[in-house]
Amino acid sequence: MRMAGNAFVANILSSRNVPLRSEPETRDFYIHEGGRYDLKVSDQLGRFQEGYWNLYEDKNSFVEELYRTQKGAFFLVGRGWKHWAASENGEARIGTAAVPLNKDEARAWAELRGLDDLVLDLYDGEIACA
Fold first, then answer.
1. pLDDT single digits (tens) 31-75
2. How far is 33 from 19, CA to CA, in rounded Å?
3. How far apart are CA 85 and CA 72, in angstroms?
4. Which of 72, 81, 92, 111 stands 20 to 30 A from 120 (CA)?
5. Rounded Cα distance, 110 and 29, in Å
């Protein structure tokens, strides 16, 4: 599941040409494709962490957080290494970015990251008990 989740996120980042910034800290807001994604006024729905999250020692670590804006748009914020790493002067650096997701992508991300309660919330009761 973890590898499928990493591939899913990496594919979204590359297919949408998301700019990865060389910044170790999450920003208060991101601009992407003319939209402003503001963490201060959006609801964090889920969080996934891989590695020990010591950015300077563990180059396999990263954090992803799924948000929903007040208007109902979803976006994923990530920081760290692997598919979130930025390149600066040809050298890999700790990166951060935000990428908009549609509801189906938000559900897929939550499912691939094993966030079952969030998956149920995003399906709005559409999943029946087996």
1. 777 778 888 899 999 999 888 767 667 888 888 999 999 999 999
2. 10
3. 28
4. 81
5. 22
* Amino acid at site 39: L
Centre a 10 Å sphere on the Cβ of residue 1 and count the other Cβ atoms it contains. Answer: 9
Domain that holds residue 90: 2-122
DSSP single-letter state for residue 82: G
Tokens at residue 88, please? 């600066």
Indicate the residue type of 58.
Answer: D
Residue with tokens 């989740």: 5
> How far from chain centre, in Å, is Cα 124?
21
127 is a domain residue = no
Q: What is the C-alpha separation between 48 and 15, in angstroms, rounded?
A: 22
**Structural domain count, the chain:** 1
Reported pTM: 0.84
DSSP 129: P
What span, in angstroms and rounded, lies between the C-alpha atoms of 67 and 39? 8
* Neighbour count for residue 45 (Cβ, 10 Å): 19
